[in-house]
Every structure is written in structure tokens, then in C-alpha cells.
Amino acid sequence: MIEKILPEFLTDILKNKLDYNYVYEIRIRSQLPIIVNYGGRYYYLNSEGVGGRDDGSIVTDRKMLEAIIYRAADYSMYAVNNQLKHSFITVTGGIRIGICGELVIEDQKIKSVKNFTSLVIRIPHEVNNCALTAYHFIAQDEIYNSLIISPPGCGKTTFLRDIARLLSQSDFIRNTLIIDERYEIASCYNGIPQLNVGKFTDVISNCDKLYGFEQGIRAMKPDVIITDELANQSDLDAVIYAAGCGVKIIASAHAYDHTDLINKPGFDNIIKKRLFERFVVLSNKRGPGTYEGVYDNQFNKIYIP
Residue range 19-30: average pLDDT? Predict the structure, then answer.
């Protein structure tokens, strides 16, 4: 919950001067104005809400920034250090905080982060049925290997979360495994998903995708694996491994469209193999999660809004 980590006066502005349902991000930088992503656009935060100019905006000092991080860690930096080494902390309610600062290196390994300079508080919003239109094309009767593509901040993670929930509402029981590398889909806190990912869903958090796919398939025998942000060859190897095991995959990747996707290292080979049978393209044109289309494995349009 946001009131657990922010000063009371900031919480009051966000909850009482704004419609909190449209607060997506809070960006806090030492000695600089606080910026809020409100309804998909960035604004300066002020005592009356938000504005397009920095006149009267609230400026953060280092003391406030550090206090927010310590409160997010429940005053135990040691307890969250494994996450902190990867530049984020997940707190109750599914809120995820990305952190910038000075890396502490020992024996050529990252041990922690100190001298914090900025953070971004990403506030998840469950949008039930936001994936329902695409669901009819990718998982209604038969699950298709599917890749959700969009630029950052366009609703891919919210979409994946809703797909997991919808799979649990199917007439057929489909065991779903979420590989939640950075606690973004289910946002488990102390072993409990903070967001609704369905009653037939298992979650492995805080592991790289290749490990999660290999061990998850062996241990949990899922019908489908859902994961976020395929980014490198190791991630793609995990997908290839799962497909070879007969497990369906629904994943996401950063790209503006299929042309941009093909130009990303490693993806051209995956696409040529036609491993993914469906592609869902999202944008931010009419707000996060705007459908641009659903395509088959040859990028033929099968749904255009």
C-alpha cells in the first residue's frame, strides 16, 4: 500500500487530490521535482495535484528519498538486499520500486546499492478483462504460443496478468506457471501473490527465465507458462526449451511492431521457426493497453480493432 512507503502529505495528494486509479508511476529524484504518470501522461506533482509546469512543484531532498526506500524495506535493508542488488524492491500490494544509486562491488560481484539518487514507484492496476478480446484468439479453445509486443509502459504486464486470470476461469483446468523474474506479474510478497493471477496458477519469483522454465516444467508439469519481457538469448533459449517439452508459452517483449521485433537480436530466428503462433500488438495511443491488432505466425492480421 502506497501509504506504507510515502510521507503522509504525498499520500494525501495522490489519494485525495487525484483519482488514484489513474496514478501509474511516481518518479522521485533527489533535488528535483516529483513526476507522476497520471492517466498515461507525465506531470509535475504539486500540493493541489498535478500540473504541466514545474512552478510550485514538490521537490525531493535526499533525506525524503532515503526515508521512502527504508520504509519500503520495512527498515531492514538486509532483508531486501537480494532484490536491491537488481535495483528494485517489491512491497505489499504489488507495488514495485526501481532504484538508482551507486553499486557496491566486491570480488567483481554486485553486493548492494548505496547513495540512492532516484527511484520510480510503479503502481499496478488490475484491469479485469483487458485481455479478453485477444484471449478469444490465443487461448479460448486451444492455447497458442503467443507473444505480446509493445513499447515500455503500454500494458503488457497487466495484459499477461489478466490472461492468467482468464485461464483459471476456463471450462477446462489448465495449470499455469508464471515465471515472475522481477515480481511484476503476480508480485508475490512473503509467498503470497498480491495480484489476482487465477486459482490454477503457480508462481516462481526472482529467478532467471531459463532456470525457471527448466525447473518449473520438471517440478510443476504446467500446461502453459507465462512470463514477461523476453530480452536476450538466454530468455529465448528458455522458450525453445519449453516448446520442445510441449508446454505452451505466453510471453511479452519490447517492440513497437513486428518489424521492430524482427530486428531485435535473436528474434528473427524464433520468428522464422514460427515458434510463436500468435502476436498481440499493444500501444499507448488511447491509453495503456490499446489494441493495435492480433496476428498469426506469418503476421497476417486476424483481428484489427
Answer: 96
- In this structure, the answer to whether residues 143 and 110 fall within a common structural domain is no
Handedness of CA 100, 115, 7, 189 (dihedral sign): positive
Q: Could you read off the pLDDT of 221-262 as tens digits, one per residue? A: 999 999 999 999 999 999 999 999 999 999 999 999 999 999
At residue 123's C-alpha, the angle toward residues 118 and 128, to 5°, is 160
Grid coordinates of 270: 524464433
Q: Which three cell numbers stand for residue 100?
A: 538508482
Report the C-alpha gap between 225 and 222 in whole angstroms.
7
pTM over 0.85: yes
Considering the domain boundaries, does residue 127 fall inside one?
no
> Residue 36: which domain range?
2-122
DSSP state of 183: S
Number of domains composing the chain: 2
Residue carrying the nine cell digits 517439452: 245
